[in-house]
Design a protein that fits this description.
With 385 residues, chain B is an alpha/beta fold. Chain B has helices spanning 4-19, 46-65, 85-98, 109-122, 150-163, 178-194, 212-221, 235-244, 260-266, 286-299, 306-328, 335-345; strands at 33-39, 74-80, 103-106, 125-128, 143-145, 169-175, 197-204, 225-229, 250-252, 274-277, 347-350, 354-357, 368-374, 377-384. In chain B, 59% of the residues are buried. Chain C is globular. The chains are: A mainly alpha (294), B alpha/beta (385), C alpha/beta (252), D mainly alpha (292).
Chain lengths: 294, 385, 252, 292
Amino acid sequence: MFDPAVLAQILWTGLATSSYMVLFTIAFSLVLKVMKLWNFAQAGMMAIAFYAMYAAVNRFAWPTAAAVVFGLAVTLAATLAFEIWGLRTLRARRSSSLLFFIFTLVCSEFAAYVLTLVFGTEPVTLFPEILSPVRVIGQIAVSDWDLLGVGVTLALGIALALYLRFSRDGQFVLAVSDNAELAELYGIDAKRVYLVAFSIATVFVCAGMYLYGSRTAVIPTAPLQLMLFAVIATLLGGMGSVLGGALAAVGLSLLQSYSVLFIPSQWQGLILYVFLFVTILFFPGGVRRGFKAA
Amino acid sequence: MSFKRRDVLKAAAAGALAAGLPLPLRAQGAGNLRFGLAMPLTGSQSAYGKDQVTGAQWAVEDINAKGGVQGRKLEMIVLDTQADPQVGINAVNRLISVEKVPVFITAWSAVVKAVAPIANREKVLELSVGASSPDVATLGDYVYTTFPLADVDVTAVARYAYQKLGKKTAAVLYINNDTGVDAAKVYREAFEKAGGKVTVYEAYDPKATDYSGMLLKLRASNAEMVHIHGLITDIPQVIAQMRQLGLKQRVSTYSAGYNPIIVKQLGAAAEGLIVTSLAPGANDRPQVKAYIERWRSKEGRVPNGLPYTQYLYDAPVMVAQMYDWLLKQKLAVNGENMRKALLGVKRFELPMTGVTEVDATHRVKKPVYLLTVEKGNFVPLATVS
Amino acid sequence: MSAVLHLEGVFKHFGGIVVADDITLEIERGQILGLIGPNGAGKTSLFNIVTGVVPADAGDIRVNGVSIAGKGIHERARMGIARTWQNMRLFRTMTVLENMVVAPREYAGESMVRLCFRPGAVRRADEQACEQALAILERMQLERLADNAVTDLPYGQQKLVGLARALMNDGPCLLLDEPMAGVEGHAYETMKAVVRQEAQAGRAVCVVEHNISFIKDLCTSAVFMSAGRILERGQIADLLASKTLAELYFGT
Amino acid sequence: MEYVYSILILVGIYVVLASSFNLIIGTAGLVSIAHPIFFALGAYTSGLLAIHFGLNPIAGTLAGAAVAGVFSLMISLPSLRVSGDYLLITSIGFQLGLLQVIKNLELTGSQGGLSNIPTPIAGPERGWIFSLVALAAGAATVLLIRWIVRGPYGRAISAMRDDELAFVALGRDATRIKIVIFAVGSALAGIAGGIYAFYFQYLSPEQFEILASGTMLTMVVVGGMGSTWGPVVGAVLLLALPQAITFLRLPLSYMAPLQGMIFTLLVILFLFLRPQGLVAPEAPAPLRHKKQ
């Protein structure tokens, strides 16, 4: 069981499977870092992204590329509306974190209900077939989906890093996430930066849902569960550290993949929460590092 | 039957509630023989629930078209459960206290279990049609199933794998929920009792999407047969990842796998998959053939979960036979007597699923039909009785 | 006579900044010690260390000979260290009297057990606290404002309420953080009189204050702090006469 | 009638839940959303004790309350040192983690839920007796919380909420107050759980998920956070609303999602148009003294 080929196979498949989790976590922790917002509406964004692409592929019979663009456009529109007509008002009122929590969660629920009304509740995959071609490299089976997942995640991750590091807007994003008030004093428009951050998050959400939905069946309420993983990864990765969150997502995924070798499989789902508990109980300071209390 | 009646009712009830008034007495359909049906009409299971309700509605129409029961019409009251225990409890409360039905039909284990206390308490007969969890048999005096419990078909698949396919070792992969956990135990026991050995016994989380760890354990074990007991959302994924890892063992599953979606999602990878059906197919019974034709002509498709809809078609027929017994014995229409009627008739001759015998253990015995995927179609493999 | 409040070798730093460097000092019964020095000298930090808001890195603090090291903020308060705050920190949504009633060393109403099983005792304690509070307010000529919301009061009177609330704690130590900042006229005189009375009643008082005339009027002795260190201690007049200190304090 | 009774019982249970939740988040200002898990602990404890030891419902419900109260320490002790957003996320983790354990234990019926909980009362009186018990529990909770909030303890709580540091520096033990409030609020949720278990006789882990947090939170916020009667109004309104929506005569497949949409939209509207909720917070009882 512990021969290198097996371990390597688990490593590869685990990495590939973690790809969409990483994308969701990056989206979640970026929003947290920049806006100090636990954006539970991300589940709604995820659901909208998936069903927009699903409609384009299966109802309008559009080519894949067009479907992805359509998904991006619809999700972006919904997200920006959410920011402009929703969050801005709450922010202006200095609402409590509970109100933000309710608002974001209820937005997700609302999206799920609307989508249920339109698409029903049957589980559907993005494309009719979920099997993707496989090649064996070394002794390891590598599917096209694996390659796409890892490739897209790496490409988007690197693009985000470069964007934040080198572009002017990226610098603004960093400045605002560091200290929004100070940044405004220096003439940076925080509102605009928030829109930029949400746009970036939209791209990651759409990419993640494309990967997830082309392999697994989705129902309108499924993204809520998916998002909770991102929340936990964000928490463990040091709140507000995007890279930390992404690494935590990879680590947690791999841990779940490997754990089958060590502990009874029915307890696997619990590993995530055990980690969360240990962190909360023993390193309350540790996870708060890098998190600026609002 | 349309749903409109129910909506009026619901509105009336809500109106009464809002006004703080007791519910008004409604005019009863003159002498109709009433029973309830609580199924998921919305929610994640509605695709199955709606088709099953359709089956039951056709049965009621057919019975009434032939003159009903001793000249009286059968009347079915349909309520939504969303396959959710909470909603189910509300629905059944309504069926019993507002609609005053002596018997109701329901499905989905969570709902069947949740409403069982109400049936026992109010002495109203609950017929479970479709919940397969073995503990359905132990839910109380007023809860009976007309559907064989999981042990029946899973045992049949396990025995078949050892005895007919000659597989000496098997792997059991199951979803970690009540469906999977119970069935996996049954498979292991049956396979080992037949003489085989279960070398891999692994559960996976309902939320999991990566099964490679579990599948590599399977690869290391070299089990000759694989039984997957999950849901229609994850069975195709497990098989897909299995094939992608180069695992070529023959796979069996249970009735959830008897679904064209699996073939669509897996393509060639579905070949050889063994599934079960607890209801006879078109070739086994002419009535079933006609029934499928009826679906094709009326709805333009085959129903989701065909075998389940067959059982649902048969359920009102059972109710009609029970009413018939009750009227002949000149007993009052209530839940207690309905239970007597069920045990009194005991042996039901049913159009879609054949003979059903209800026994004191709250179980039913039925033959199991095994099917396999060949060139993208489900074809009969064997019948195990 | 042993000191009421005794600090020995207290040390505290935040990163590279040392806010208390080997501070040793004593305050006796009836003494009013002035704590002076430029902004950022570590005067308020010293109060925070003594009250436990900020834990010291090293050194020992004793109240009437008992070490309070390792004790929490509320425990120190109950051992008799009362303090006021530079910006008062009154309870905004409450009246003057309510602000004071929650402030005695022992507040019976904070124990759910006592509330449930000895409601009479709690009520009596509450009444007693009310009487005590009204007596203090009377001394400050504020008793008619007892039922006013604190936020309705002018600034000077709010400062007085801050002191009044601290006085509900009848412990041996009283730490006053800039009691005079922004206070003028009648309130100023009241403040001075009350502080003096408290010292005469036997409390050890320590005042951080920039208002030199207030210090001169009240304090018998003073300590001059700069950059976390005690540079000089002694009679107030001597300290004020020192040229180096004046330079440090007022700048050049 | 059973239908009306079951709604009255839900009203009673949710009044307990919303009021006790409000005590934690509104009155004491502790940002936790894990309330459903204490509801679950009470329900599972009393259900299991009744199944395995035949414990009578009153003792069982009290045991459930005790277990919920004790478990609340697991979240309050480590996380009260920190507050705000961090506590919020901690509480989510606590809730989902514990729920995962419940879903995995055979003792608690795993994912399939806990069935066969015996009922203490059978027969036609059951409905109204349970309604009475549930409504009485709701009323008792409201009165208890009103007594806490308007008395000396409430004075301490509002001082703590105004300025915690100043409060502590007066010698008050804020941590103990928070722990006690958390435990009292959670124990009340446990009582609601006991009533729920004995009436419905079936528990499913699904009903204590994060969406349940959302529902309870909505009741508190719509009703008016920090006010004594707000959560009562919120609970009644949010339970009655879905029933009222059934007035619209719509095809069934549209009914459920539409009901959800209207429901969530109303919450959103409330958040924007009346963020303080329907009922304003009640002032504590004025201090009486001789000079008045």
